[in-house]
C-alpha cells in the first residue's frame, strides 16, 4: 500500500513547477520591497523554521544582507516593541493559519517592518492578508501530517525572494530543480541499506553546514516526527565541538552536503572520522567524495549549492517514509502531531 506521504513526495516536481511559474514573475515586487529595507527577520516555527534557516544562509551568503531568525515570544509573550525600521520581516507558515506566526508578523509591521508572507494557505489566509506581499506556494493539499511538498515549495519561494533581493546567482538553476527532484524520487540511492542500518538504532545525528544546514535540521525533525528516533540536527562545526562523542556504533551519523561548495571537504573529512571511529556514516548528496567516505549514501541533486537544499531533502523524506514503515509506524499520521500547530 502506498502511503500518502510517499505519494506527496512524488508530487513535488509538479508542485515546484507550479510554484516557480507563479512566483518567478513576481521578482520585481520583491525587489521593490527590498529597496526599502536593509536586513531581514524570518518568523517561523517547526518545519517552516528549518526553511527559514535556508533563507537566512541564502540571503547572507548571496545578497550581502544581514538576516536573523525571530523569537516569536518577544512579540506574543513578552510583548516588547522593537525598532524594526529598515527590516523586511518574512513569515513562513504552510497553512497560513498559525496564530502565533500571524500575530508576530502583525507585530513586526507595527514595529516598522515591511512584511512578506510565504504560505501554502492561499491569498485569503490570515498570514497572507496580514502581509505587504504574499508569496503563495502551489503545493496543493497535503494530507500526510509530515510536511514534504509544502516544505520544498517554501524553499522555492525563498529562492525567489533571494533573487528579488539581488542574489548573485543564476536564476536558471532554479528552473532545473523540478527535473532533479524527479530523478531523486526515482533513484534515491542506497535507501534499503540505510533503512536497515537505522532500524535497530535508538538515535542518529544528522549534520550539515552552511546552506545545507537547513536540510540536516529538517531531516532530523522528520526522523523524530515520523520514526520516533532521537535525532539530533547539528552543524558539523557544532558537532565537532563536543557532541561528536555521542556518535558510536549505536548512534550513526547522517551527513548532508551539496555536490560542490566550501562545506563539502569538511563533510567528507567528518565522514572519514566517523567511520574511522567504528560508527556508521551515511551520506546524503556530496557527490562521489562523500559516497566514497560513507558506508552507504543517498544521491543528491546535480545543482549548485545555493539551490541544492531543494533537492537534498527529497532522499531524506524517502528515507523517513521507508524507515517508518519498516518500524511499523504509519508515516501519514504519527502520534502527537497535527497539520496546524498553535502555540500557547
UniProtKB/TrEMBL annotation:
What name appears for this protein in its UniProt entry? Glucosamine--fructose-6-phosphate aminotransferase (Isomerizing)
Q: Which of UniProt's keywords are assigned here?
A: Aminotransferase, Repeat, Transferase
InterPro entries on file: GlmS/AgaS_SIS, GlmS/FrlB_SIS, SIS_dom, SIS_dom_sf
Fetch the Gene3D superfamilies from UniProt. Glucose-6-phosphate isomerase like protein, domain 1
Q: One GO molecular-function annotation for this sequence?
A: carbohydrate derivative binding
Keyword Repeat among UniProt keywords: yes
Q: Where is the SIS domain?
A: 29-173, 194-329
Q: Which Pfam families match?
A: SIS
**What PANTHER family does this protein's entry cite?**
AMINOTRANSFERASE-RELATED, GLUCOSAMINE--FRUCTOSE-6-PHOSPHATE AMINOTRANSFERASE, ISOMERIZING
According to its UniProt entry, the protein's GO biological process terms are: carbohydrate derivative metabolic process
Amino acid at each position: 500500500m502506498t502511503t500518502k506521504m510517499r505519494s506527496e513526495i512524488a508530487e513535488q516536481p509538479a508542485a515546484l513547477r507550479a510554484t516557480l511559474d507563479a512566483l518567478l514573475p513576481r521578482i520585481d515586487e520583491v525587489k521593490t520591497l527590498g529597496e526599502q529595507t536593509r536586513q531581514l527577520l524570518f518568523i517561523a516555527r517547526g518545519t517552516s523554521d528549518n526553511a527559514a534557516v535556508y533563507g537566512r544562509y541564502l540571503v547572507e551568503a548571496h545578497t550581502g544582507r544581514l538576516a536573523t531568525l525571530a523569537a516569536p515570544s518577544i512579540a506574543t509573550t513578552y510583548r516588547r516593541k522593537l525598532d524594526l525600521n529598515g527590516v523586511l520581516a518574512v513569515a513562513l507558515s504552510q497553512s497560513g493559519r498559525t496564530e502565533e506566526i500571524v500575530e508576530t508578523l502583525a507585530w513586526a509591521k507595527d514595529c516598522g517592518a515591511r512584511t512578506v508572507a510565504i504560505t501554502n494557505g492561499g491569498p485569503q489566509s490570515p498570514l497572507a492578508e496580514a502581509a505587504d506581499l504574499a508569496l503563495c506556494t502551489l503545493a496543493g493539499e497535503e494530507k500526510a501530517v509530515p510536511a514534504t511538498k509544502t516544505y520544498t515549495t517554501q524553499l522555492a519561494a525563498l529562492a525567489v525572494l533571494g533573487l528579488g533581493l539581488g542574489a548573485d546567482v543564476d536564476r536558471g538553476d532554479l528552473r532545473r530543480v523540478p527535473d532533479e527532484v524527479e530523478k531523486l524520487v526515482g533513484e534515491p540511492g542506497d535507501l534499503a541499506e540505510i533503512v536497515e542500518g537505522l532500524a535497530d538504532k535508538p538515535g542518529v545525528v544528522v549534520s550539515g553546514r552552511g546552506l545545507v544546514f537547513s536540510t540536516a535540521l529538517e531531516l532530523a525533525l522528520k526522523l523524530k516526527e515520523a520514526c520516533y528516533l532521537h535525532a539530533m540536527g547539528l552543524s558539523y562545526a557544532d558537532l565537532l565541538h563536543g557532541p561528536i562523542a555521542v556518535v558510536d556504533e549505536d548512534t550513526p551519523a547522517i551527513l548532508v552536503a551539496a555536490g560542490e561548495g566550501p562545506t563539502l571537504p569538511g563533510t567528507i573529512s567528518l565522514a572519514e572520522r566517523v567511520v574511522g571511529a567504528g560508527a556508521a556514516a551515511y551520506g546524503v548528496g556530496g557527490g562521489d567524495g562523500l559516497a566514497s567516505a560513507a558506508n552507504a549514501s543517498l544521491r543528491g541533486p546535480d545543482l549548485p549549492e545555493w539551490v541544492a537544499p531543494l533537492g537534498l531533502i527529497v532522499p531524506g523524506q524517502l528515507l523517513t517514509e521507508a524507515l517508518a514503515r519498516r518500524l511499523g509506524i504509519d508515516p501519514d499520521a504519527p502520534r502527537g502531531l497535527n497539520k496546524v500547530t498553535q502555540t500557547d
